[in-house]
Amino acid sequence: MQPTTYHRVFVKTYMARVVVDISLSREKLLLIYQGVAKRALIYSRDGRSISLPVKHLLPHITHSGVYGTFVLEFDEQGSLLALKRLSQ
After folding, report:
1. How many angstroms separate the CA atoms of 31 and 37, rounded?
2. pLDDT (tens digit, 9 = 90+) per residue, 13-24?
3. Which of 2, 46, 79, 81 has the highest count of CB atoms within 10 angstroms of its CB?
4. How far apart are CA 46 and CA 25, in angstroms?
5. Domain 16-87 has CATH 2.40.50
């Protein structure tokens, strides 16, 4: 009987990170609540445009709106994995 051989498998994970500065006023957020807007068009610091479903912004909404620097993390298919606040 031969001993069991274990192999380590390393999976390379791809994750694109994009830094954005978001400045959405309370008035613009009202359009979201009224159903007028379902996506927010934001621009990354390197000039790329991102059409973000507003549902991802909900945890970051304050009485004055959504303001701050965020990092968006995407998988290799381009699906959003995380939206994290870096600063206000």
Report:
1. 6
2. 556 899 999 999
3. 81
4. 23
5. yes
